[in-house]
């Protein structure tokens, strides 16, 4: 509170300094001295803004980002994404929720708005006091700002181009949402966590997209108007000065006002964004506290569980399950993968093969929907994979990454992550098939895995991830280096497992294994960022 009052007190000194400056500006003989005075005011404004924003940034921006991260990450902090899964005991420590923090953040935000509006109003009054020229320019400037904001507000509903700009800003949120979805499903921190997770993520992803879309629209607009206003001011002032109808001191004064006014306009928009972030985060965190997590399965899960295994597409006229055409993925300014074209249908297996560092995993991330395509098309069962359909697409795929994560719980709990309807006999059958006989018994299924899979060897964890993926009943199975800790005999077991229990599903594998590449029905060889 003391720091907040100090900020307001320091900010109130600004009008006094500006008022004294106005009195000095009326005397044109002080022109040279005023140049140094303007320089001093600019430095003072910078120091004052830095000092006053220190507390505001600490309470407003940092808290908003932290709360917003919690909202977008479904109540889990970012360190969880580094292949670390929380214990049941530290779940409460992972949820960032403190009503007092939200209140202080909102209060600090309004202090910043008060500071901005005060200086904004004073500058307008000062300009009106000096001469009609400043008044006219200010009114014109305000009209331009108002019309531009109205135009952009209307354009938010119809402009697809602005959505493309926002996609760049929101792509990190997409990756966070997918990671949060996997972590949340894998962790199963609460026994009643069988919920419509994908639907929840899609709803809050929409909030993130709208937020980024609005910021991507208003930010450039405000900046452009500020630059345009400066051009108008300087042109008008130069024309008036050439006719000697306006003293040079007035032009100099207006330039000073403009330099003080422009950052405050931007600050107001930033504070407004902070309030929106706090509001969204507070609502999401309240939902986490009050939600009863209803015991229902998502409609997509029910549909995928309606048959023991998905049936093979027998109609040749039906669209491909995966259809990637002339896809180009840009990783960096000089690193491009593609163009790549491939199709995958039910019952087919595709192996992406090639040396390390050629972009196999990057291509896989694009197929998973984590990386955007620079060019080309990507469709799933005839529907384009885009921002609107990515949620339903994720519901129908199962992914095993290179680190093949497992949860710090029992073996059967880990296997049931993708499908809660898996029976003990089904799990035991597949564990026996992959050579984990010691885990297929009742005692073995109930054995503890411990944190980071410490109860199993690397090879055993990888085999458990095979079983979990097969029993997830998803239509598309994606494996990234599934046999990195398995010998050649184990690679043959992996191939037989897919032949026996996933013959009617589409399988996509990234691997260095020649055994798997020979077994697959299709092989994509990537070399020097191009596919053959």
Automatic annotation (TrEMBL):
Keywords: ATP-binding, Membrane, Nucleotide-binding, Transmembrane, Transmembrane helix. GO terms for molecular function: ABC-type transporter activity; ATP binding; ATP hydrolysis activity; ATPase-coupled lipid transmembrane transporter activity. GO terms for cellular component: plasma membrane. It comes from Propionibacterium freudenreichii. It comes from the Bacteria. Its main location: membrane. Residues 322-528 form the ABC transporter domain. It is a multi-pass membrane protein. SUPFAM superfamilies: ABC transporter transmembrane region (SSF90123), P-loop containing nucleoside triphosphate hydrolases (SSF52540). Residues 1-277 form the ABC transmembrane type-1 domain. This is Putative ABC transporter. PANTHER family: ATP-BINDING CASSETTE SUB-FAMILY B, ATP-BINDING CASSETTE SUB-FAMILY B MEMBER 6. It is found in: Cell membrane.
């Amino acid at each position: 509170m003391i720091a907040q009052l100090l900020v307001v007190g320091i900010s109130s000194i600004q009008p006094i300094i500006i008022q004294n400056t106005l009195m000095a500006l009326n005397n044109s003989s002080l022109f040279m001295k005023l140049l140094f005075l303007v320089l001093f005011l600019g430095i003072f404004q910078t120091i004052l803004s830095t000092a006053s924003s220190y507390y505001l940034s600490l309470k407003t921006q940092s808290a908003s980002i932290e709360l917003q991260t919690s909202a977008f990450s479904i109540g889990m902090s970012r360190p969880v994404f580094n292949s670390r899964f929380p214990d049941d005991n530290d779940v409460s420590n992972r949820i960032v929720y403190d009503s007092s923090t939200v209140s202080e953040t909102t209060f600090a935000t309004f202090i910043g708005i008060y500071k901005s509006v005060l200086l904004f109003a004073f500058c307008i009054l000062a300009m009106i006091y000096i001469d009609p020229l400043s008044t006219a320019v200010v009114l014109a400037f305000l009209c331009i700002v108002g019309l531009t904001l109205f135009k952009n507000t209307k354009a938010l509903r119809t402009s697809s181009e602005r959505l493309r700009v926002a996609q760049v800003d929101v792509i990190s949120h997409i990756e966070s949402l997918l990671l949060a979805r996997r972590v949340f499903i894998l962790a199963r921190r609460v026994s009643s966590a069988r919920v419509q997770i994908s639907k929840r993520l899609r709803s809050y992803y929409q909030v993130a997209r709208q937020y980024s879309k609005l910021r991507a629209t208003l930010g450039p607009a405000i900046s452009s108007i500020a630059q345009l206003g400066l051009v108008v001011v300087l042109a008008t002032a130069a024309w008036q000065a050439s006719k000697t109808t306006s003293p040079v001191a007035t032009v100099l004064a207006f330039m000073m006002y403009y330099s003080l006014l422009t950052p405050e306009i931007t600050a107001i928009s930033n504070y407004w964004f902070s309030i929106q972030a706090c509001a969204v985060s507070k609502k999401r965190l309240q939902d986490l506290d009050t939600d009863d997590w209803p015991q229902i399965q998502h409609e997509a899960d029910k549909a995928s569980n309606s048959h023991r295994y998905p049936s093979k597409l027998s109609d040749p006229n039906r669209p491909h399950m995966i259809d990637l055409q002339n896809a180009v993925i840009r990783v960096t300014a000089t690193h491009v993968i593609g163009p790549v074209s491939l199709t995958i249908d039910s019952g087919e297996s595709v192996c992406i093969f090639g040396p390390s560092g050629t972009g196999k995993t990057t291509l896989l991330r694009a197929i998973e929907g984590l990386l955007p395509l620079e060019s080309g098309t990507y469709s799933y069962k005839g529907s384009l994979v885009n921002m609107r359909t990515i949620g339903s697409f994720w519901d129908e795929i199962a992914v095993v990454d290179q680190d093949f994560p497992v949860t710090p719980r029992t073996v059967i709990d880990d296997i049931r992550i993708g499908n809660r309807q898996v029976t003990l006999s089904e799990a035991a059958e597949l564990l026996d098939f992959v050579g984990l006989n010691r885990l297929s018994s009742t005692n073995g299924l109930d054995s503890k895995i411990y944190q980071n899979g410490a109860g199993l060897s690397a090879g055993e964890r990888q085999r458990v991830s095979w079983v979990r993926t097969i029993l997830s009943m998803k239509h598309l199975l994606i494996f990234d280096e599934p046999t990195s800790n398995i010998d050649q005999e184990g690679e043959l077991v992996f191939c037989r497992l897919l032949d026996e229990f996933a013959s009617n599903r589409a399988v996509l594998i990234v691997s260095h294994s020649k055994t798997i590449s020979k077994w697959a029905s299709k092989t994509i060889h990537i070399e020097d960022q191009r596919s053959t």
